[in-house]
Every structure is written in C-alpha cells, then in structure tokens.
Amino acid sequence: MTTIAIENPSHTGAADDAQLNASFARQPILNRDGMLCGYEIKVRAPELAVGAESDAGAATAADPAADALPGRAPEPAQLVARAVIRGLMQGNVRGALTGHPAYVDVSREMLFDDSIQHLPTDRFMFELPPSILVDDALIERIVELHGRRYRFVLDEVTQPDETFAKLLPYAEVVKIDFTRASKALLPKLTSVLKSAGKLLIALGLDAQADFEEAHGLGFDRFQGYFFARAQTSTTRRVSAPRHALLNLLQLLSGDPTVAQLEAELKLNPVLVMHLMKLANSSGLAVGHKVTTLREAINATGTNRIARWTQLLLYADGRKVALEDDPLLQLAATRARFMELAIERLPEAGRDEADAAFLTGVFSFVDAVFGGSLESTLNVLTLSRPIQAGILHRQGVLGLLLTVVEALECGAWDEIDSLCARLQPLTSEEIALLGLAAGAWAGVADRSAEGLERIED
C-alpha cells in the first residue's frame, strides 16, 4: 500500500487536507517452465468524496480527454487516477516486483493523464479492462502511448466482442479468463491469436488440471495459485532429500547442540553445501572465510538455520534463482507477512512472531509433499496453535493466514471485514506489509536479513 497526499483537491467536496489512499497487492504470473515472469498488481483505488463520482462521470462522458486540457482543474476521477499512478511509482511497489514486470489495470483517466508516462515502459504492462469505453479518443491515445513504447494487454477476455475487436490490433498480450471462457471456443480462439502473434495469458488457474489444459493449448503465461496446491500424481522436486530436511527440522525444534547439528548435517552433503554458502554470504562470516562445518553453524546460528531449512523445503530442484521460484516466493512472503503483522498486534513478542512465521511458511507444505496437510504438519511436530491456525483458521494465527490469502487475491472487502478483528491493523497497513514481505522474499539472497540464494 502507498498513501498519496493530494494538495488542495478541487471539486471533491473533501477538506483541503484530505488524502487519497491507493493500496496494492500482487499476484504471480508464471511462464511455461513454471517460473515467475511477472506480477499482476491488484489495485484498490482511492474512494471519491460523496457526490463527487457522479460529477466526474458526467464530465468525462461529455469530453473524455477534457481533464488533460491545460488550465483545467482535474475532476475527482482524475485525482484518483493520479493517486494510483503516483502510488505505482513508489519504492515499495517497485521492491515487491523483485525485478519482474508489472501488469496493471488502467482506466481512461489514467491513460489520458500525462503522469502515466512517468511509469517505465520496460516495467509496466497496461491492462485494458473489458468495460473500458472505446472511442476514437481512446484509440488515438493508445496509439500515442504505443509510439512511446508502452505495451497493452486485453484483460479478462471470455469471447470476442466489439470491444475486443477494436482493441486487438493495439494489444501485445491477451489475457483469457480460463474459468469463464467457453471450453469449446478456447482451441480456436487460442490458435487464431497465436497465429496473429499475440502472447496469451491464462487467468484464474487454481487447479493443476486447468494449468495442464492451458499449457496444452499453447498459452505462454499462467496466472493463479495452481502451483501451491497439493498434487495427487506428482510432487515437486526439492533441492535436498525430503527426509533429510524433516530430520533437520525435528532436530532444530529441540534446541540441539552444535555437535548434534554437525552430526546430522554431515549425513547430507547437499545441506552442507547450502549451509557453507549461507555462512559465507551477506557478511555472516565476519573477518574471515568460513571453511569448516562447525564454523558455519556458529556463524549462522540455529534460528537462521531453522528458517533457511523451512524455506529450503520449497526450493525447486532445478538451478532456479530465489526470486524466480513461485512456490518459495509465496512461502517466504506469507511467512514474512505473518511475522510483520503479528508484531503490530498488542502483547506480541518474539515467540508469537516465530509462531506466525512458521504458520505462514508451512501453510501449504502439502504442495511439496503431497498427501494430506494434517499428516505433514504432524510429522513436523508443530505446536497446537500453529496447526489449528493452518488447518482450521483458529486464533490470531488463523486470522492472519486468512487475511494474507485474501491479500494474494486482492479481495479488499474481505480484508476490511477481517481487520475489524485484527485491530489496530487496517486494510492499508495490511497492503503495505504485503509489499514489504514480497520485497524481503525477493531480495533475501542479497540481504543480511534474508537467505542465501538456493540452488544446486
């Protein structure tokens, strides 16, 4: 989330010191290899003052580009558009993108406002919603922005219609709502669009079967949380033997000695290799290079080793950069969000923060191991409050897990409702913490507060 202050807003009916607040969440987009290649930015636009929205709509309908005219005071809808654009330029949004391009819905007001040209052309894709009013003025503006190297996406396509036909020549990407589009129409529609050179994104993939169908039809990108669901037939490759990671986690839960950790790690060369890399990264080894396993354990510390091992469960077995691994990114972001959020609540200490981190990191561990989530959690010997939070959404841990899941979908109304039970946390703070957690997860391999890059 980012908060944008508007100086002396005109025609809004609001006080001069009013603020327009825009909140942002992100949703991953994967390529055909299952790696992160972008994020859709879910926007919660600022709310207009009472009575201002109708006035703005009338002005826009009378003259779609009028707000862009020099010397004319912007209408409320234009102020909202500028708040969103300025919010997208803030560092917290940029950090949460972790180097990936952003796909963001744009309104007419955003497109006609010249401040949109402050957004980098190589970092932002403009999604045109199916409800946008298409006329000569809009087409002319799209052509102008296209000439400045901005790229456009047709969003939420379910079937060809008049809006689709008018905008298709100017779109580089077509995003098809896979759950709402006709299954009979999809093969022909994708074939025609691919022949026309369009890049296709399948939207709304929350089941592995839908992903496999979209993949078979030749879609280039995939959006949804299918990758975080337990699979019945195949499980994800991990970068170290599962039993080794579970044994290490069980040992770490019992406050082991250095000698015990050393003995366990020596049984697993892959883990030793990762730990040596971790100890020699991010300034952990002060003054000299760590050369022995015992030195690595002492330099890293058991708490850090525990967190590293927890996230290592999600690391892809291929040589994949942390910031490109969707499952690890989701686990790290959830865990960090939970930790940051619980620290904002009354009477939360270090133990509560650690429990929140564990709740987030293990909230979908069945995606790695298969089988039931409950049986996997039992193997991990997690505490009852953590298991109750994950399995039944009970207690404050369950509430925080529910709110971060809502944030991942941009379900702002649900977040509002949950915040009533998480006071003093607000929806705006939830969005801000989500961006901070995403940024932390994405640069963890380069930060003294994060983790070493995990790769074979």
Automatic annotation (TrEMBL):
Pfam families linked: HDOD
Boundaries of every HDOD domain copy: 238-428
Domain of life: Bacteria
Coiled coil (residue ranges): none
Record InterPro entries: dGMP_Pdiesterase_EAL/HD-GYP (IPR014408), EAL_sf (IPR035919), HDOD (IPR013976), RNase_Y/CdgJ (IPR052340)
Listed PROSITE patterns: HDOD (PS51833)
Name the record gives this protein: Cyclic diguanylate phosphodiesterase
Native source organism of the sequence: Paraburkholderia caffeinilytica
Source taxonomy: Bacteria, Pseudomonadati, Pseudomonadota, Betaproteobacteria, Burkholderiales
